[in-house]
Amino acid sequence: MAYHGRNLGLNGNVTTVMQGPKKTCDDELAKTRPFRRKAALRAEAEEMVSQPQTQLSTRRPQVEPAHYQLPATQPEPWERLAATPLRLSLPRDGRMPLVNLFRTDPVARAFDVMRTRVLQALKAKGWTRIAIAAPTAGCGATFTSVNLALSMARVPASRTVLLDLNMRDPGVASALELPARADMRRLLKGETSYLDHLTRCSDTLAVGLGAGPVRDASELLHSGTASDMLDQIQQDLRPDVVLCDLPPVLGFDDLVALVPRIDGVLLVADGTRTTSEQIRRCEQVLGADVPLLGVVLNRGRGNGAENYVV
Ligand SMILES: Nc1ncnc2c1ncn2[C@@H]1O[C@H](COP(=O)(O)OP(=O)(O)OP(=O)(O)O)[C@@H](O)[C@H]1O
Ligand SMILES: [Mg+2]
User: What Gene3D superfamilies does the annotation carry (predicted)?
Assistant: First the structure.
């Protein structure tokens, strides 16, 4: 009886029944005690059920297993970018030729040689951000940006980020046959995260696409929010190279606005129409504030590999 009572005593109030007289109780009391104990238990159970949860939890504190309390581990930002593999179709009329589709083409070889030279130059200087622009429209700035990015992305364990900063006439999305996820303006204004904007095409290539023309493009590129966004992409994604496709140098001041935020410029000349005077004017526009990494001769004669200077 005492043993039985001690078990019940764990429930709190019932201990008072336990602590009553044991050996001195008379038969009458001994007969009534079991009923009193049951009644007390029932009352106790009813009382517990009717109490709010907060009170219940103070009676019997719940201890969470230690592993529930550990902070959740997040994949790194590169892994968190939306993944959309490239599904490139063979070029039709007007579709941009891409080196991934023509690996044996001399142009593909030319881009690989350019890639290696650019990567070596960047590594030697500790640089990452390159702007790619042409003197005038249609010379091949986007053609060069996209194909250079694809060539760089074939370097194992590297990371290339290609940003379409030609907000006058964005062309990277259609060249890569990808849907633009958001407006580049919103990204550069800090209204959307790069995590929601950039698309990861492979383990080695991520792209930031433009959905359409933006009126205040150069003001945006001047802004602190654009600068912060570029820094954040650099810091979080840790790319080896950030390539920025830009509008024509002689038509807009966008490249000049971006100059403080980049390490070097690749100028794309069209062998069929760009003049040496245009190249000279581009050099003047850039001034001494940013190094001209090289002049790429697009649509030049020859097998392609020798048609650039870096
Ligand atoms: N070497 C090339 N071989 C074949 N087609 C090319 C070559 N270079 C450019 N093109 C084509 O020429 C057109 C214009 O090229 P691209 O879009 O790269 O020019 P851009 O300098 O970016 O022009 P914009 O300033 O308007 O953005 C595109 O259709 C592109 O596919
Ligand atoms: Mg372009």
Answer: P-loop containing nucleotide triphosphate hydrolases
Ligand nearest to the CA of 146: 1
Q: Give the residue, by CA position, lying nearest to ligand 1 atom 25.
A: 137
What domains lie within the chain, and their CATH numbers? 2-59 (no CATH), 81-309 (3.40.50.300)
User: Tell me: the pLDDT tens digits for 217-238?
Assistant: 999 999 999 999 999 999 999 9
Q: Compute, in angstroms, the gap from residue 156 CA to the centroid of ligand 1.
A: 28
Report pLDDT for 94: 72
Interatomic CA distance for residues 195 and 213, integer angstroms? 22
- Tell me the best of 90, 93, 95, 96 to mutate to test the pocket of ligand 1, counting ligand atoms within 8 Å of each CB and taking the most: 96
Ligand 1 binding pocket, CB closer than 6 Å: 94, 96-97, 134, 137-143, 166, 169, 171, 247-248, 298-299
pTM: 0.78
Tell me the per-residue pLDDT of 281-301, one tens digit each, with 9 for 90 and over. Answer: 999 999 888 999 999 999 887
